[in-house]
Design a protein that fits this description.
5-stranded parallel beta sheet; alpha/beta; 11 helices; 34 strands; 5 domains; 674 residues; Immunoglobulin-like; Rossmann fold; 9-stranded mixed beta sheet
């Protein structure tokens, strides 16, 4: 027999108290003289021996009640044969603090209930045992072995986290940390989670039979949530006083339909649009918000709805810049000859310039978003070098390869062969590429493609992307990555004799999107945790002092993320610098370079959890030792965990015996009359 808390055995000294009380309260008998013997008939006889027996029995019941009460607090147990009685328990607790644990159960918020159960589990072990707390944050301070008191303090400090971890990641982390425990220790991993379906990948892996896991499941009362999943714009570029269409995708996991739900759009803190919508169970709904852009500048956007109890995904943050114009430069052999590009880019949203090879100002190349080489017959080495540098720094170049151009290798290994006269149609477009992703609502089954009469067959490099293809399987338009920029190569020129592409409806669409995609602008939003490295083009001026770091300033934080500059582009490591969803201004010294918007990962937005039947099916292939699944109810968990920790525990029996001997004392005093 051993005791989980032997220090309580000192309380057995309290047994002296009832003994002293009984010694002073024994009845002393004395002689009584009666003048009239008839009173003796009414006197109940009581011998000294009977009185002492009663008092001894009362004393014994009190002593036993106190003894078993003290033993109950001391935690007596008997270890199983397969447990090393001299070993220490090292308990590794995984406490799921993801956003899905913000749901409600019959006992309160899931995270609060899980924390309370974790504390109860810790208290069921002995004082010599050691504990480790692991959360979704994978923080270093949560991976040290702590005493009972210290780990309880850590558990009480655990709050909700935006981080999402799969169960396999948790298992691997605990397996790696196992080496920190004592060699002869009993290592006991325990998981406390709602085991949400999206993050609990139970069917894709199995634990080691030598390293089983005990896990406690907490069920939410309602598995429903309404949340904003994503947004998208109809146009790739936003301009002043332009009608804008924002598409908001909303998902609902409830069982009952909902109607007249308000959805708000705010820009720079001011409401710009309001809409209401209805949604059916399990539906993914698109809600369209229309509004008018303001003046040029940076805008912080937010879409809002209201839904309880899960609220982290009720707001969606984004940002964008309203630009006056997109700057396009066309380089042509003869500036006085007609060009279909001149008419194409005469629209207000473009700042279009056309120059000849001889008159180009190399120093101004960096001022343009897109440079178009329209079949120049010669390309000076100096210009080729500047264009390559322009692309390395994030710029985009579009090349219409003429049949007489033999200088093209100056721009890299283009793989272009000699000119070939052959009538062939285009028959394929890469619809998934951003160049065409928003052009077609659906992929057309039959489409009138352009025809090419003369072109240069290309044998492209493996890293090239084919964006438009001809019937003979050769590329018509392909993209070559150039460091941080792009080179878009058309295998023909814009002469009428070379084909009808300049007169086809795909021509303006393709060129406009090329110009829009060339604008160096941060993404409208990033996802926390998933986004580790952010690359921002065109942010850094080479003439600025590179020793001054950039920092991200949020509403309640200001941090300097890991950063480096490559070819004029800024690379930011945001994993440890950004913890909360919202907008962060990118600042350097006293200058603001724009905003970045971050949103929480929506993996935790679907609160659907595994049912018991589904768990039994999913775990059918797991080792028997790894199927130790407990309910989060207090009555089951504490006793089972203590038995697993120490073997057979007897504190409950001690409580019952304490109550029994108290009852015996009461019965003796009440029914044993003198």
């Amino acid at each position: 027999m051993k005791f989980a808390h032997p220090e309580f055995l000192y309380a057995l000294s309290a047994l002296a108290i009832p003994v002293l009380i009984h010694l002073f309260n024994f009845r002393r008998f004395k002689t009584v003289y009666f003048t009239n013997v008839r009173f003796l008939r009414e006197l109940q006889e009581q011998t000294k021996r009977q009185s002492q027996l009663k008092h001894y029995l009362v004393l014994l019941s009190r002593l036993l009640a106190i003894t078993f009460l003290v033993l109950a607090f001391a935690g007596p147990y008997r270890a199983d044969k397969d447990l090393d009685s001299g070993s220490v328990n090292f308990v590794s607790l995984y406490l799921d603090n993801s956003f899905s644990m913000d749901g409600q159960s019959s006992e309160g918020r899931l995270l609060d209930v899980a924390k309370q159960r974790a504390i109860e589990v810790v208290e069921s072990y002995g004082t010599a045992d050691r504990f480790q707390i692991l959360t979704n944050d994978f923080e270093g301070r949560h991976q040290r072995w702590l005493t009972q008191e210290s780990v309880i303090d850590e558990i009480e400090r655990v709050g909700l986290s935006e981080n999402v971890r799969s169960l396999e990641q948790v298992y691997r982390r605990q397996a790696d940390l196992r080496s920190q425990a004592a060699a002869d220790a009993r290592y006991q991993p325990l998981w406390l989670s709602d085991f949400q379906r999206n993050s609990s990948d139970l069917t894709t892996w199995q634990p080691d039979s030598a390293f089983p896991v005990r896990w406690v499941r907490f069920e939410p009362e309602l598995e429903q949530n309404l949340f904003i999943d994503s947004i998208s714009f109809d146009r790739p570029l936003r301009q002043p006083e332009q009608n804008e269409i924002l598409r908001v995708w909303i998902e609902y996991t409830g069982e009952d339909s909902r109607a007249d739900i308000p959805l708000r759009l705010l820009l720079n803190g001011q409401q710009k649009a309001l809409s209401t919508f209805s949604i059916a169970p399990g539906e993914r709904k698109e809600v369209v918000l229309n509004y008018l852009n303001g003046a040029a500048g940076n805008y912080r956007g937010e879409v809002q709805l209201e839904d309880y109890p899960i609220t982290f995904d009720d707001r969606f943050f984004f940002q964008y810049q309203v630009r006056e114009q997109v700057s396009v430069l066309e380089i042509h052999e003869d500036v006085y000859s007609a060009s279909p590009l001149a008419m194409l880019f005469e629209r207000m949203e473009f700042q279009y310039e056309r120059t000849s090879i001889q008159a180009i100002d190399y120093a101004r190349l960096g001022n343009f978003d897109l440079v178009i080489l329209n079949y120049p017959k010669q390309l000076p080495t100096g210009l080729a070098g500047e264009l390559n540098r322009f692309m390395e720094q994030g710029g985009s170049v579009a090349l219409f390869a003429g049949t007489e151009s033999n200088y093209l290798e100056l721009l890299g290994n283009l793989g272009l062969g000699n000119a070939l006269k052959d009538t062939v149609k285009l028959n394929k477009i890469e619809y998934r590429h951003p160049l065409f992703a928003d052009v077609f609502e659906a992929q057309p089954e039959r489409m009138d493609f352009p025809t090419v009469f003369e072109y240069r067959p290309a044998v492209i490099a493996p890293q090239a992307e084919i964006l438009m293809e001809m019937e003979n399987g050769l590329p018509f338009l392909y993209r070559l990555p150039k460091e941080n920029g792009s080179l878009f190569v058309f295998v023909t020129d814009l002469q009428n004799a070379s084909g009808n592409f300049p007169r086809h409806a795909l021509f303006p669409t393709t060129l406009y999107n090329l110009a829009y995609l060339s604008v160096p602008e941060p993404a409208p939003y990033y996802t926390l945790v998933r986004t580790d490295m952010i690359e921002l083009r065109g942010i850094v001026d080479p003439t600025e002092n590179s020793d001054i770091p950039f920092h991200l300033a949020g509403q309640e934080s200001n941090s300097i993320p890991g950063q480096r500059i490559q070819q004029g582009n800024l690379l930011l490591e945001t994993f440890e610098s950004v913890e909360d969803a919202g907008w962060y201004s990118l600042q350097r010294a006293d200058s603001t370079y724009g905003y970045l918007a971050f949103n929480y990962d929506r993996t935790e937005s679907d609160p659907t959890v595994w049912t018991d039947e589904e768990l039994d099916i999913a775990l059918a292939q797991w080792p028997d030792q790894a199927r130790n699944r407990y309910s989060g109810e207090r009555t089951q968990l504490a006793g089972v965990m203590q038995k697993d920790a120490v073997g057979h525990s007897y504190w409950k029996l001690c409580i019952l015996l304490t109550l029994l001997f108290v009852l015996v004392e009461v019965l003796l005093l009440k029914f044993w009359k003198r």
